[in-house]
């Protein structure tokens, strides 16, 4: 039976330390843990593919291969057609992995060196490379991985898809694309971000029955957060509630050609439950904005002088959606920054406001912590002075660097969005590829601003906001991901906010 996914995520080194403690201090033989892993994987294989025509187990020479040998032996014991395809020199197999291979040989499993020809039917078990991989995949393994991916057969990955970095979630050259991944002892953080969601398929956890006390020996690298974590914060409002209790969000943005961005942000803040929402934008955009959402108090502004009275009334400011990078946007950013420093006003900074900051259009003094920054990888690269590839190579390092440089809460958007705070990381795994369309970030910034206005802490506004955003997108995508629009998320927010 599948175990519930834990919340805590760990690095590969931490997971290996748990394994060592179980073997050395709790005296659980390594082969016993390997057999538990193989049994859990084999049970999952039969659950997902009850009558496989053939089980093709691709094994390396390390402990990941050992888990695969156990799966092969169990398949043979059930009289299922099974073949082990060996990659690497089998004479280099040692320890528990060697015992597992001997177990498979005793079960009369057919073992063959992989020659490059891929079978055309059955199920593949990926037991090539485990969590110890740090550099690029070597040629022999790369060839096997490419053959697996091109065969079109369902793949069950053991512990982690081969070629995926377990710490960063990035591809190390060639990476197996699995239908399901069963991971052992501890959840590895790379499964949940960057390329992890694409390569892992469904993620299943097996603790291998190691003692719970082992997990107290290390602090989790980060945490996986879900909407249910916030149910206590989403209690019904008191019957005496009025709009003054739930804050006033001011959205600033919508330069020429980008009016919709500010409008979507304002509407998202209102749908999230803010008491009042204003929008400062170009005067020409006011009629369209009011027609779209008459609940928004729309103001045309051309200068800081016209913006200042609006800043006085706001309790939260969302700056950036459609702001542009002209003198107008720079003026708005300067006015907001002066006001925020004077009053420690909560801010949500997105889109072109981030780009203006990256261009040093204003001087950001270190130590301002009362804001949430929501960059996508391109914006993060500009803020850190690197490339998008640098960000995606290690999203955990990038979001930590952003938080250390700018303070507050930082949301690094993307597959497996990351949230960095002073106290550590969080990972959110709601969301889908349909969100690859314009305006999704504008809606997120409005959601976070709406939560801040209602008195949620900076940390909880970022965490809950990202969860709401991704889950609303998943609900909206039930009729299909392609063609999903940012405004399709708005009708789902009320239900999620009133569990």
Describe what you observe in this structure.
With 499 residues, the protein is of the alpha/beta class. The protein has helices spanning 12-24, 30-48, 63-77, 95-106, 139-151, 196-200, 259-272, 286-292, 304-313, 327-343, 351-358, 377-384, 388-393, 395-406, 440-453, 458-476, 490-497, and strands at residues 8-9, 55-59, 82-86, 110-113, 123-127, 155-158, 180-184, 202-206, 222-224, 248-252, 276-281, 297-300, 316-319, 347-349, 371-373, 409-412, 417-421, 424-428. The strands form two sheets. An eleven-stranded mixed beta sheet has the order 1-9-18-17-16-15-14-13-10-11-12, with helices on both faces. Helix 7 (259-272) links the parallel strand 10 (248-252) and strand 11 (276-281). Helix 7 (259-272) packs parallel to helix 17. The model has no long low-confidence stretch (mean pLDDT 96).
Estimate percent helicity.
40-55%
Distance between the termini: 29 Å
Put simply, the count of helices is 17
Major sheet: 11 strands, mixed
- Provide the low-confidence segments as ranges: none
Number of strands: 18
Mean pLDDT equals 96
- Class from secondary-structure proportions: alpha/beta
**Order of strands across the biggest sheet?**
1-9-18-17-16-15-14-13-10-11-12
Estimate what percentage of residues fall within beta strands.
15-25%
Rounded to the nearest angstrom, the radius of gyration is: 26 Å
Outline? elongated
